[in-house]
């Protein structure tokens, strides 16, 4: 298995399959009364988060603890020496000097995990870097899609909304295309990146025309913090033209599912009642995030390319 996970491009389709297959075992661990296995006993995982996070930070922490690793959580806030001017590099080397085995990093700058991986011996996992990538989100999304469809091959997935600022869109589109799915990016022209040719996706500016063709409708968060760029006239206008409401859900295939990476803006990109429909599998994405991150930590720190069945654990 790879040492660092910085981009979804690093994983071959067979490595992605291995991560998903291994996650099946850990999904089962999450259903037990005692949700813990001793696989990473004695290893240390550091969560280094310079940007807000609920799902990714907590699920990595839970994943590491369920594997019996020691976990340090570090946020670049007023309580750390970053507030005294310590650099990112010195912070990284300080963690390395304490002997951490893996650093899970979220940073507002694209490329920060790549830089970190050159400074430390530990494995580095990208938990979201600027508008660049969020590879573990892509893996948990593939896992969740796989629970509903027998194959990725030929599956039609629409990623809807603020593609321009979305690291999730980049990682998910790349992962899905790698696995044989057809991806359409859907949104207002101002929120579609200008250089989209290399993505291998289709583009549509007409949500209602695309909806009946999709197996998966993947909604992106409208990044309210970027509204000062005036890329959409208002959130109300966005909801009117691009939000998924009940009327638009009725245009979808009966078996099609709705996904969202969270956090959601109910009433903007997704109507409040639509988020709670049975075909909205957003809570499953969160549940699966723990198992998929356990699988990754296990494969990267513990087992190479061997599944839990092949590695006897005490
Ligand atoms: N999906 C996701 O990255 O959520 P958080 O920002 O809460 O981690």
Number of strands: 9
Order of helices and strands: HEHEHEHEHEHEEHEHHEHH
Report the sheet with the most strands, covering strand number, pairing sense and barrel closure: 5 strands, parallel
N-end to C-end Cα span: 22 Å
- The best one-word shape is globular
Mean pLDDT: 92
Q: What is the SS-derived class?
A: alpha/beta
Low-confidence stretches: none
User: What's the tally of helices?
Assistant: 11
Structure ligands? phosphoric acid mono(formamide)ester
Question: What share of residues is helical?
Answer: 25-40%
Proportion of residues in extended strands: 5-15%
Radius of gyration equals 19 Å
Placed side by side, the strands forming the largest sheet appear as 7-6-5-8-9
